[in-house]
Structures
1.
Amino acid sequence: MAEQTVSSRLYTPSTPNLTEFKEICSQTTNPATYPLASKITSNIPIYDLAALESNGLTSTLITALQDEWHKCLHTGPGVYILKAMYPTEKYAETINATNNAFNQIIATEKVNTSMAKGDHFAAGGTNDRIWNSFQKHAVTDPTSFTDYYSNPWLAHVSESWLGPSYRITAQLNAVHPGGAAQDSHRDYHLGFQEVDATARYPAVMQVASQFLTLQGAVAHSDMPIESGPTRFLPYSQTFKPGFMAWRRDEFRAFFQEKYVSAPLEVGDGVFFNPALFHAAGSNIMNPETGFRRVANLLQVSSAFGKPMESVDSLVVVRAVWDELKERYKAAGEVIAGSELDPGAWSVEQRGAAAAWGDGAGE
């Protein structure tokens, strides 16, 4: 029998091929693949949630949306936008109260800590950052926290990529005028490792790691292009050795040539595969306006993964318990869930399921 050679289980720093990467990123998003999207802008599917809700939501429609979102992140452009995920007519008070809570936390931390609040992939000093905004929000304002994380769309999005029993972590980032753009990168887990450390992980594990996390953000301010909304390189998450490639100058140069971005409005959500090459843009708004680009950054982790941050669940439960008890009583002491009529899920029912269900708030 002829001797067979076993191929290496590992990538090396020389594995990534720029020509292959360029070919992968030259794809064009076909609107027919995402029929529930209202439009495709710069290769990014955009979903008008208000229009979908106005036509009546059913479990069948929600499942179809989740199927599209999963395909988009897996083999599609890797990013999609949810317009009016937090519609102003319902969530304006919640967003305002949440922003007030965040501003209070920022002010308190500036006085009480000397710890740097920088950025992983850009120079610090021109942004305000709240690490673990999830837990701190719960403690500061349990009412707006409960309203915010009870949004049923957040549960549907999270389950579409991760399934049940996910865990949410969050960080607030407010970028002032003059805030520089980030370097293009991939995200947690392997996006935070140096290349030598990354190379120790088998190639199949590097690919598999993207299925352990969902990256997202909710716009807490309007984000015109001049304010620097996140830049994306569609389809780059499908480049298998990408965790070995994103630090290389030639890949970053290609990103600078080909990235796309889209403006957001308050309450919009954007979600993407953590393996997608991306970078926050530069805020070139007039400093005299005092405009800040504000987003609550979400990392949602699989039940099989390790979240980026440690949340003290007991602290969160104690903070929101009385609020949840009152809502439970007001709902007739019924927890929405599997008994929901699969043919007609109201927004209120879905909100209750999100608040009490498998994942949100864990």
2.
Amino acid sequence: METDFQWLKQVKSVHVIGASKKSDKPSNRLFLDMKNSGWRLIPINPQSVGDTIHGLPFRPFPQNEQSELFVVFLSPESTLEFLKKWMYTHSSKPHIWLQPGAENSEVINWLKQANWPFTSSICWVETTLEQHLMCEYPYGNLPWYVQYKDEASHCSIWRVIEPESSIQVIDKEKVEWVGDLVDLEIDPDQIPQYIRTLQKAHETLEETAKRLS
């Protein structure tokens, strides 16, 4: 079993697959335990889109090819479904960290056959805390953004949310796009692409996003 996890220091973004709103769940406590670790934590749960977890917006699915690490809190069946969906829609293979309970022999064998790097049987949070690991090159606190369909006007609303802020829950069916500044810079989805086209020569993308809100 791998014991040297110094490579985690080079990781900047961590997608938490199966993040939960329930405060007693390990996939919720992770965001408190790792809050000051420097990693950009990205909660993934399609059922919770439009809501936040400790000030971070839920996303339905990882949004780009530059994903580095997936920490998975799903059942083995859902884990395999998630991995296959990623493989069918992306060419990259982020490191998969299977939290205890997310793996079985079928998942392990599938990952091995796919030549996909993974860690299993140990907890990512406990490992990083025990080995005193932190992100060496953190992004810092990032603003995030949401575009949603307004029920009254039927228009699309673009909003900027400052770091660690929360919002009133938005119906997930009305959310058209959600992401932070990194997503806004690189996500190929048509909404962030359009925002990028509106950037003026003298502006940062963050300033553009704020101007449009």
